[in-house]
Amino acid sequence: MGFIRSAKTIREILGLETEPVAVFLLAPADERAASLDAFQPVDAHRYCQLLMRARRGASVRLIPSELACPAAAAAFGFRPLPEGLASGKGLIGFGITREAETGREMFREMPRLEAGRLASIAACPLKDAPLTPDIVVVEGPPEKLMWLLLADLNVAGGHRRKADTAVLQATCVDSTVIPFLEQRLNFSLGCYGCREATDLAPEETIVGFPANGLEAIVDYLAYLNEKAVPRSRAKVVFEGLKKRAT
């Protein structure tokens, strides 16, 4: 199944207003980089802003020195975490935590890539991906993204899906680094940073999964759309309850 068809299927079944995003995590001397030369270089961007532009149609790439968020830079192995964040005191300044130890623990447990593993990051609408990406990130309302989780649960043979989050770094860590390192879908309710720095709406959240699982997830989405999706959205049981109450 091609990326155009996969992206179209996801958008149509879920009813998304924006595009699923293909993310490329490019190592030094990565042969794929040449295929992404036409992507627009961006400066002074956060990773969540890179995704924001890609979900709205742009094909963009970012080098380490231009990643503006220090926490995301640490997560991708671009730069060490600044002491103000590593100590936990920075999160007190943002009003996110009350105790420095809480913030320190949040960053101590942060999944991250080792230094130097990546040379750049690129992102584009999944439909425009010139080659297989590493991760697919989808942003949208929870009801719509719920069906991706159910499709993934089907792929996994019924095993419960787990969310791993610190309610911090929802796009870089929760939706990209964890799926990349653990090769599994992960989901998040969002975080302070991406909600402040992007147009992610209050009623939207994020899911990320390895692109090598795309075809199987899309296949199960199509299956769910035969009966489960339309029946649930029609609220058949609730409508029956309303009729009995009148």
Secondary-structure topology with pairs:
Elements: H1 3-14, E1 21-26, E2 40-41, H2 47-55, E3 60-62, H3 70-75, H4 83-86, H5 89-93, H6 100-108, E4 120-125, E5 135-140, H7 142-155, H8 170-182, E6 186-188, H9 192-197, E7 205-210, H10 214-224, H11 228-234, H12 236-245
Helix pairs in contact: 1-10, 7-10
Characterize this entry briefly.
The chain is built from twelve helices and seven strands. By secondary structure, it is α+β, with helices and mostly antiparallel strands. A seven-stranded mixed β-sheet has the order 2-3-4-1-5-7-6.
Strand order of the largest sheet: 2-3-4-1-5-7-6
Percent helix among the residues? 40-55%
Rg of Cα set: 19 Å
Strand composition percent: 5-15%
Number of domains: 1
Distance between the termini: 48 Å
Number of helices: 12
Question: How many beta strands in the DSSP annotation?
Answer: 7
| Category from helices, strands and their pairing | alpha+beta
Query: Residue ranges: pLDDT <50 for 5 or more in a row?
Result: none
- Overall morphology: globular
